Structures are given as structure tokens and as C-alpha cells.
């Protein structure tokens, strides 16, 4: 911190803007944005198309990461009108806590409780539940194993898994490289124990680093010598490679924690280290012009994918349009999505711990929605939430495939019932298309949902209940102000574009 303050250019106003415009303050107390000198990422112009406006490419014959697409019988769970589809498990924010202790205090005064060191509950107070707790408490191993077993038993036809990071618990005052390494490896072992033959594509969470949230720019040689995250990038790259033994993930994984992998012919996943845009990564006060050069790298990968006729899904921990990502970086990402909206067919993130959907709009035509960012809710109960997992359905391999996201189902465990009656049943929380009355999951249909929610308070309350995973302490807490925040955040997360909500900042 001292190094950043002494050598960085950021001033007290910028520091205020970083802290008080994060997700911790949904309504910022100051009308500030974190900005330094204007900067932009070079984005190549599209190659002119023919008379039809379409560009045809033939993808080269390459081996597939997915050994065999599952042959699926008729199912009431999902149908793609007889065409193949991919069933994708998204795990996010597992926050495995090896120190979790049933019966310990849930009100210990620390950022995380329910641990052996949290002490005993006060007289009349309940202790930490066996399966997790609504207090500031992370995931006990018994909960993690039960969730993975439920997924394995009920969804044996998963084609691949995306895991968008945050394996480490919230006890940040006890972190070390050694402890983080041990937990990261433990989570990797659990995933491979339950899904030994299923490809897993991972992304890097902000809790994995030590110190937490610290992602110095590796392109600065002096900083890299003193504060390098090389140990973390090598650790994660080794784990990601073990998840995908049949391919070589790109070398960028060991440089900046990002990588690209071809899942099937014509279908690529890019794992992006968005922790470089995190407002609590103090290194952005030292260098905020594309730290890590990850946006420049992303543009190159997308251009190569476009040239080869590949469709792309992007996964990361922090969604670029989320309030925790600083505004200039957000806008540059919006520019990239606007340019490559025909190539980017899905975006999947975590970090929020709740269900959120944020829409990208064309920077040249701000009324036109061009992308959807799915913030998948957390596997951990932290904080006041039920644990959950989410399945996405993606257009599969066939001649007219778009690799579009077709639907999603989220499952949850009610902690009250689990702890009171040992009723460990994972229920379907909602299906996006059915329960939100969406024609498709394309950006214009989500935009239409926002219009409907703006006019229908009950629909917005329903969305909020899904967002907090039917938490017994949060599901009914959404007043007019809460509903307004939900609607406005979905459509105007890019603060550089014109506001879409009346009387909003």
C-alpha cells in the first residue's frame, strides 16, 4: 500500500471514488467516478462483409475437449427442439472453510464467524448450523460434498463445468500463500473427485491472491520483481491444466491469469482475469491504463476467433459491468463487446453472490442491447443467503449452431430446513425462460424483461426473491428503492453511456 501511495498518481478524490462507488455502497454518497487520464484500447474495425452481410468460415478440424456430447432422450428438463445442446454447470464463490465448526458463534464480531476460534454462542443464541449458516459464515466441507453429490446424482449428463473462482474463505486476517495454496488445491481435488471425467474451465477469484485483492501489473518490471503474483498464476495454471488434460491452455495463464481454450471445433472459452479492474485492487491507483494488458490480449483473442469463425464465451470472476469494476475499464469492455457482439455468445461471472443480469449496450447506439452478463449466485451461504448452483443450456454442435445461451436453472438448499430437520434437499429455484416469461435469453428479451419489471412491482419482487435464493432473512426485503436499484443496475451499469433510468445519477 505504501509503495502504491508513494509512487502512484492517484489523489484523495480518486481514492474516495474507488471506495464509495463499489458494490458496498449501492447508492454512492458522492457523484464520483474513478478516472485518471483518458485511455482506450485499440480495437480493429470489422472486415467488410459480402452482399448478405454474413461471413462464412470453415473451422479447422481439431480435437474436442468434450469427448462425446451426451445423447439425450426426451426430457421435461430442457428441449432444444430436437437439436443438440450442451448442459453446463456453473459453480461460483465456493468459499470453502476448513475451520468451520458446528455450534460455534455466528456473531463473533469478525468478518467471518462459525469457526473454532469464533467462540461459543451467547446464552439464548443459536450456534452455527451443521450445513452452514445465514451468519457471516462460509461453506463447511459437509455442505460442499453434499452439493457436489447432488449435482453428480441428478445431472450426470453435464458436458462441462465452469468455475469462476473464490475458493478461499473470508478470514482475510489469517491468509498466507501456504494457506491459500492448500485451500485452492483442496477445492480442485474435490471437483476432480466428484467429476473425474468432466472438463472444467476455471477463472481466478479475488480471494485467491495474497494479500487478498492484490493484482499488481505484471508488465511493470520493477513492480513484478517486488510484488509478483507469479506463484499464484503458476498454481492456478497447473490446476486449470489438470482440469483439461487433453489440451494445452494458452501461456497467458502464467503471465496474467487469463487464458483461452477451444472447447469444441468453432467454440472457444476465454477465461479473463478481471481482478485487474477491481476497485479494491489498490494497484489501479498505480496503473489504471489496462492493467495486466488483459483487454489488449482479449481483443487479439477475439479477433483471431472471428477470423476462424469461432463463437466465444467469456468467463471471469468479477463482471465488467459490476459496480466493483472501475468505470473506465467497464467502458472499454463495453466497446469490445459492441465490436465483437457477433462473436461473443455468452458471458458468465460470479463475485456478487446473488443472481444478477447486467446488459451491454452498443456504445455507438446506446439504446441497442448487444450482450448479457450472467452473475451466477454463490455456492456459499455467506452472507444471509442459501447456497445454490446453476445449470446453463447452450446451443450444441449442429450446422446452424449459434452457441447461444438457451436457458438456465438454479437450484438451492434451504438452510433453515436443513439445519432444523436435517432436510438436505436441493430444490429447483427457478428456470429463467419459464419463470421470467422470456422468449429467448438474448439481450433484447432481457431488455424487455426490464421494461416489464419497471411497470410490475410484483415481477421485480419475484426477481429479487430469486436473486437472494429465497433466503429466509432476505426474500421479503425489497421495497420501492430496492426495486429501483435492481431495474436500473440491469440497464445502466456502464456509467459512460447515457442514463436509462429517470432521476438516476
TrEMBL record:
It is found in: Secreted. Keywords: Disulfide bond, Glycoprotein, Hydrolase, Metal-binding, Secreted, Signal, Zinc. Its cofactor is Zn(2+). The keyword Cell inner membrane does not apply. Residues 386-501 form the Sphingomyelin phosphodiesterase C-terminal domain. Belongs to the acid sphingomyelinase family. This is Sphingomyelin phosphodiesterase.
